[in-house]
């Protein structure tokens, strides 16, 4: 196998107000990509408070995860593009 991916779920939950569920994954460095973190949610954008709380929790894990949490950025979701 030329490339494989090693990843793990670091956390998951649901926003109290919206009910929007989310998950955070960590993926290890490969030949083609650096290590990183991803947030996923079922119902679109997470509330800013939720994102900040997740980032704070990730920073509390220390090491590579703490560094990566400081580098997180939001991407535009398909339903929110204004092309």
Any overview of this molecule?
The termini are far apart. Helix 1 packs antiparallel against helix 2. Helix content is 23%, strand content 25%. The chain is of the alpha+beta class and 83 residues long. The model has no long low-confidence stretch (mean pLDDT 88). A 3-stranded antiparallel beta sheet has the order 1-2-3, covered by helices on one side.
Order of helices and strands: EEEHH
Strand tally, please?
Answer: 3
Shape: globular
Average pLDDT score? 88
> Could you tell me the strand content as a percent range?
25-35%
Say what oligomer this is.
single chain
Query: Radius of gyration, Cα only, in angstroms?
Result: 14 Å
Biggest beta sheet attributes:
3 strands, antiparallel
TL;DR?
The protein has 83 residues and is of the alpha+beta class. 23% of the residues lie in helices and 25% in strands. The mean pLDDT is 88.
Please supply descriptive tags for the structure shown above.
83 residues; 2 helices; single chain; alpha+beta; 3-stranded antiparallel β-sheet; 25% strand; 3 strands
